[in-house]
Amino acid sequence: MRKTPALFLSIFLFINCGLLTANCFVFAQEEKYVRVLILKDKPTVSFKINGSFEIDDAQSGKVLYRGKNLKAAITAQKNGISIGKTSFKSNKVLLRPDDPEAVYLESRKFRGNLVFVRNGRRLSVINHIKIDDYVSGVLIYEASHYWPTEALKAMVLVVRTFALYQAGENAVKDYDLTSDIYSQVYGGRIGERYRLNEAVEQTKGLILTYQGKILPSFHHATCAGHTEDSAQLWNIDLPPLKGVPCDFCKESPHYNWHQVSEEKEIREKLIGAGYDINKINEIVILGKNPSGRIKNLRIISDKKDITISCKDFRNIIGPNIIKSTNFSVSLVNGDVVFVGLGWGHGVGLCQWGAYFMAKKGYSYEQIIEYYFPGSKLSGIK
Ligand SMILES: [Zn+2]
Asked: Residue 74 Cα, ligand 1 centroid: separation in angstroms?
């Protein structure tokens, strides 16, 4: 497969590294790329390119087509991919515009190159993009551009680090990240803002590491009292991710949540996920983690009872409906009533905690050290 050019050299980038040593030099910075899945299972996709471009077979690297200014549909065909009226016997094509800011896909503007992958009569589209262009496209969905600069810089560090961690984990797959909440929400060029881009520039080339390895720098909206130990959720057991108390997010708009769902809706989602239950009579909390989040739930129904991890329950019902695994639950007149605390899985950086820390005058280095104790700021290798 022909790879997107992997590095650009920036010379003698001078950065005040804070936690590393004061005023250190980071030499010959590499500009890394990430691959972000932006569309999936589409029979056809419309796009527009301004200026010159090239279409390559992504597997052989062979140039299939060169052109200028094109507005067309890309469609998955029986034996390949068609672009406008031209068909190519290829299952994976790379679209490379001369101007990296010249591509519109379904009316959204993207930087970088696009790869179209055919799977039967469906297409997936993957954006190959410089890491910091990706970070700029993510930030608007994770933090407001009105946030204090130090909070934005802390966010940039966790988003950049997390993306590169994912790139390492997914190297054998077609893409590193999805563009939804299961990775980090990414909207392309449309999401960028001046102050966010500034925070990206001011921390350029820096990531978080632990013992020389890229830290899986998870983040979430609001922890509501204590961040979570990553080992409670995933097979990741690292000292910077063991969880810390957090009073900073007390004023977060997401500190409390309340959800009333019909019993039938909860039941149908569980059945849809393969659980054998009937009408739900009661939901019992089975055990809590030290952070206060629920380990398991016992769901008592007419037909039989099931035990489910609260993490799975939240994912099945919807992570934006059940905003956290820290809640009380009761059945009231045929409704399931949840009263909860915080938003997100709770691991790593508490975004609203970072916001209020920055408001109180903490630097981004101090915010990072607070939520990821023992981690280090390092140059990208
Ligand atoms: Zn918090």
From this structure: 45
Number of folded domains that form the chain: 3
Asked if residue 327 belongs to a domain, the reply is yes
Is 60 exceeded by the pLDDT of residue 25?
no
Q: Residue 256, exposed/middle/buried by CB under 10 A (0-12, 13-18, 19+)?
A: middle
Domain boundary among 73, 97, 131: 131
Angle at 257 between CA 253 and CA 258, to 5 degrees: 145
Last residue of a domain, one of 131, 148, 176: 131
This prediction has a pTM of 0.81
Which band of pLDDT confidence, cut at 50, 70 and 90, is reported for residue 2?
Answer: very low
354 lies in some domain: yes
- Can you give the residue range of the structural domain that contains 103? 35-131
Neighbours of ion ligand 1 (CB under 5 A): 223, 246, 249, 350, 353
Residue that the structure tokens 């916001």 belong to: 355
- Burial annotation 81-92 (CB, 10 A radius, 16+ → b, else e): bbbeeeebebbb
